[in-house]
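Why show two proteins at once? Because comparison is the fastest way to build intuition. When a single record is shown, students tend to memorize it. When two are placed side by side, the eye starts asking what differs. So, the first record is below.
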Amino acid sequence: MNETTTYLDNNATTRIDPRVVDAMLPFFTTHWGNASSAHRVGRGVTAAVAQARRTVADCLEATPGEVVFTASGTEADNLAIRGVVAANRGGHVVTTAVEHPAVLETCRELAQRGDCELTVLPVNADGGLDLDELQASLRPGRTCLVSVMWSNNETGVVFPLAEIADRVHAAEALLHVDGVQAMGKLPLSPTVQHIDLLAFSAHKFHGPKGVGGLLVRRGTKIAPATTGGGQERGRRSGTENPAGIVGLALALHLAVQEQPNHDRAIAALRDRLQAGLANVGGLQVTAPDAPRVSNTLHLTLPVEAEPVLVGLDQEGICCSAGSACSTGALEPSHVLSAMGIDASRAHGALRFSLSRETTAAEIDHVLEVLPRVVARVVAVSGVGRG
């Protein structure tokens, strides 16, 4: 990546913090043992993994035994949903129409196989959830799990988890939260205390790829996703990834510790970007009045996003057409469809996602480049001509 690159696709992945890299390096070189080994080569690694688990637990206001390390946020979501359904031998699951595919596709697969009943709740035009509709969907004694995201990966819209948790727990159901896009962007306390299962992924908060985690509150019954060596208290067997686990723990600690100061700065830059694009013809900000994470600006244009993305990339600007997980899909975003945004508009969606590394100069670069790229695409496509 050269000096002219303006990277605004941090909801897809963040650059790993150099401090995290330094913490991980010994586990590729001198501390290379297996954390499950009892001899001297393994014992130091075992201790490092245990310390990392304590660090993560402290960040999540949990105990070390409630932390399960996984290979990704997707695996953590799957472990939570499949684990609860299997432990309950079926039951009723509730989710929403704007969830990440790791949640939505998993729930639908389980329902299609007859492993559970499923209710998928709609959202309003701002991507918000009607809590009365959620209440009406719950079946006390039958609903075993409600699975919702904390903040949306495309639009940045935030769900009111404390209020959701009150209703879910009143129905004696468990609350699983996909927190992948919230960690490091939203304060964890006191909301985290309302959550039974919380999934997260290190590479979304300046940690390494290939490692994530699941908070499983004490007393929450889940069946294991994999069996074998009995690691992670039998909930996720498989040789641990010490370098990744150590990196995740430090990245999470730094994110939680530094989040308040970074949040204000990132919000100011996001608002500067949003205000500066107000004069781009036909541009519409998605859910501008809804509660959103500070780093995400989602908008739609009256032209196809693809040629705009190409033009921006040629100018060194990296962003996305919604979710990186659905790149290459011909259908419009399921999130935007659920919000009632028509397909033609949805095809013009762009997402700018900032991080603590984003600078004012980078925002100014986008404000200088995007209007002329859009104007060029409009001229070529003929949009707006009589």
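Second record. Ask yourself what differs from the first in the token line.
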Amino acid sequence: MIEPAVSADAVAPPTPTRGSVVAWAFWDWGSAAFNAVVTTFVFSVYITGEAFGDEDVISAQLGWALAIAGLLIAVLAPITGQRSDSSGRRKFWLGVNTLVVVVITVAMFFVEASPSYLLLGLFLLAAGNVFFEFAGVNYNAMLVQVSTPRSIGRVSGFGWGMGYLGGIVLLLIVYFGFIAPEVGLFGVTSENGLAVRVTMLVAAAWFGLFALPVLLRVPEYHAPASVRRPKVGFFQSYVLLGRDVKRLWSTSRQTVYFLLASAVFRDGLAGVFTFGGVLAASVFGFSPGEVIIFAIAANVVAGVATMAVGALDDRLGAKPVIVTALVGLLVSGLIVFFLHDGGQIVFWTAGLALCLFVGPAQSASRTFLARLIPAGREGEVFGLYATTGRAVSFLAPTAFAVCVSVFGATYWGILGIMLVLLVGLLLLLPVKAQQQQIS
């Protein structure tokens, strides 16, 4: 069934301009520096390489480090957006958290290719993930400031697409500038991991530069008087969060069901990219340069698929798109697992198939919720959407780490990620694409 359109009577900020949409999406373009370069395809691959020790052991340690980061996010993120809304400083905190991520990325330059630097590398990667997710809470909440109920799906997809395109451009720059040549730009070589370490400086500058438009162009958020709340203390914020969820359960139960389901499967989607580069290098023997070439292809596939499926989303509804994408991810992931001895051709084919489904699932998830939200509750529910996803962001890293630790080989981590996706799919299936009247 096609989801009903969001009511035009919803509480909304003034009609956004095209310039504000583009400025907002440039943050996504810049964030590829952390998503693609740091977390997925360059730095995480670097610190799980043989220069730091046994690759299977380090892969498990990486999973545990990200799991700890996820637990911190689970404790702190659910109130981050709420407090920035209440203070009227949503954009301010987006800027602060983005700046912290940029500084952490710069600090990765000092992680030399030696086992003695492994702990520092894992700490910086975990800390970067925490503050990146905090920034993402505020960034996602700003979606309702730069879109209307009728355009929110297109704007959401545009942001995702810009992220993939930014990843492609930046990966091409660092690959041909530093990773591939024996002697790269400015005389940089691979000795002592210098090519990767300089890449972190480029990534930091990229993110910082492209985060500026949203901070300069999009106005600060100010809650309407009808939904404005008094400022409360840190712990009292959790009390208010509980009340919000209870009220939403009473008035919009399908929204709660979807928030729970999407929180789980979105963490599985994040796990696909987080550990994709590690699996390519440690299981399928990709060199660092080959990982980046795969990353470029993966971003092209994901970006094209995300934009192309938008029409199907409008025609068929978001839920069929999400379900199809999750099933496709499960099939592709199991092929990677069972054929892991088949060499790089397996990862090139089944791995790119995984990327084909990730983007559409991410974009359709936001549009599904946009059509489901009761009129006048957009800001509140999109805040919960952002925070519930972060609150369970430890699931995929934990499942990955447990499977690798129990079975003693990195490729078993694939099953951990697939399990998270399966649970998310099963939770999604009963969710209705329309609200039921709650008596």
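One difference worth noting in the second protein: Residues 1-12 have pLDDT under 50 and may be disordered.
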